[in-house]
Amino acid sequence: MSDLKNDIQRLEASTMTDMVESRLREYLKRKSFVPGDALPKEQELADALGVSRNVVREALSRLRMLGMIESRKKRGMVLTQPDILGSLERVLDPLILGKNTLRDIFELRLVLEMGLADLIYLRKTSEDIAALESIVAQEVNKQQKPFRVEHEIAFHGKLYQMTGNDTYMRFQKMLLPVFEYVLDYEIQVNGQAEVGKVTHHDLVEILRTGDAEDFRRGMKAHLKPHFDRLKA
Amino acid sequence: MSDLKNDIQRLEASTMTDMVESRLREYLKRKSFVPGDALPKEQELADALGVSRNVVREALSRLRMLGMIESRKKRGMVLTQPDILGSLERVLDPLILGKNTLRDIFELRLVLEMGLADLIYLRKTSEDIAALESIVAQEVNKQQKPFRVEHEIAFHGKLYQMTGNDTYMRFQKMLLPVFEYVLDYEIQVNGQAEVGKVTHHDLVEILRTGDAEDFRRGMKAHLKPHFDRLKA
Which residue ranges does the record assign to the HTH gntR-type domain (chains A, B) (predicted)? Predict the structure, then answer.
């Protein structure tokens, strides 16, 4: 009898929570819940699902973390508009990501950078250009090396903002630490790469006088050292 | 005395779980946990944090959903390499996303599409081109309207795969349903848009004979109707 534990697989609480979470999602979808709609009470859900209230609470806690539900005074739990990047932010830690994922994210940042020209040309203002110019002026004044993390973040961060797309901006900013991490590692192994021939200053000049295609070509030249790493 | 519930804010279990989740993250980071390392037992964590075991279990359940920890026989809970897009997938439901987020995602798909040329040119093979050609041939044989969702998915999905970047591929595929949802809505309101002058067939031709810059220019012309929507 003492071997029973080895012979029959225990139904883990975590498995139950997975199932309850998935049932809840199905239910919300099938009943066409929209943000603002109130969910049934914990105890009702537990009774309907035939599980303990603790398991229901765990599953609801997951949806709460994803920003899909929240508790409101008097109304109980209601469906909300989720913060789509909130949970991504929680797992983008270079130390726990695998090598392939780190490389993927490094490339993804480059893809996003190469694709932003059209949105920028749709929405750029003269104030934006002035702001970029003052960022570039600070780089020169500080007499620092051409490649500095804080310059990169200030300059490219402003470009992200100019897309007028909050999701794009947040996503790119989230990818930066991973990008820097991979870059640092590469530099340790292969040595510092050349700097792209097109500088931040040149890119601002293109934004003034060129079109979206010129800007894309300039960005490609600016990022060339990173693309060269991918070939290696 | 009966007004006390109105005068003092109840410490919700959900708030406790938020705090415990955040403490656990801090702890894992400060102690430099890496994938494979075993976590302390639930009860030890509960004792150290001074909270009930249920709250600890809820917080751990969230980390489990994010793919950051998993249960292993005999070793208990261990840190794992999270699936960075798993939780994003859970919330990308057009029906519960806000209008701004839907627009952001529509644009993000275009940005990712415009940025993929460099990765494709780094990795494309003659087998890839042959596969694209057979997809295009099917489009023509079926004598269907030039814009069909299944053609779009087959053709662009193959392009995503050609980047050799799994994260990019999964991310783009996840965005597609939201993209289609916004497109359907726009078509209902503003009528069907023109089709881009550069077709899938033309894009394959460019992949054969042109360079990355030609391809980007072709893709821009292919996606022009979508970019025109953004101007409106």
Answer: 14-82
Please state the φ and ψ torsions of residue B109, each to the nearest 5 degrees: -60, -40
- Number of domains composing chain B: 2
* Mean pLDDT (whole number) for B122-137: 96
- Whether residues A15 and A95 share a domain: the answer is no
CB nearest to B216's CB, from A17, A79, A216? A216
Q: How far is B137 from chain A (nearest CA, A)?
A: 29
Asked if A88's CB is within 8 angstroms of B84's CB, the reply is yes
Closest residue to A112, CB basis, from B58, B68, B112 = B112
Chain A neighbors of B113, CB-CB under 8 A: 115
* CA gap B65, B60 in Å, rounded: 9
Sign of CA dihedral A141, A147, A149, A154: positive
CB contact under 8 A, B118 and A165: no
Coil, helix or strand at residue A163: coil
CA nearest to A192, candidates A150, A145, A122: A145
Report d(CA B133, CA B141) in Å as an integer.
12
Same domain as B212, residue B103: yes
Q: Which positions in chain A touch B62 (Cβ < 8 Å)? A: 61-62, 65
- Closest Cβ opposite residue A62 in set B65, B82, B166: B65
pLDDT in tens, chain A (232 residues): 556 766 666 666 668 899 999 999 989 988 989 899 999 999 999 999 999 999 999 999 999 988 899 988 888 899 998 888 888 888 888 888 888 999 999 999 999 999 999 999 999 999 999 999 999 998 876 655 545 678 888 999 999 999 999 999 999 988 988 888 888 888 888 777 677 899 999 999 999 999 999 999 999 999 999 999 888 7
* Residues of A in Cβ contact (< 8 Å) with B91: 66-68, 82-84, 87
Give the number of other CB atoms < 10 A from CB of residue B203.
23
Q: Are residues A113 and A74 in the same domain?
A: no
A120 alpha-carbon distance from chain centroid: 20
ipTM of the complex: 0.85
CB neighbour burial string for B109-145, b if at least 16 within 10 angstroms, e if fewer: bbbbbbbbbbbbbeebeeebeebbbebbeebeeeeee
Q: Strand A76-79 and strand B69-72: pairing?
A: unpaired
Same domain flag for A108 and A173 = yes
Q: Which of B29, B54, B79 is the last residue of a domain?
A: B79
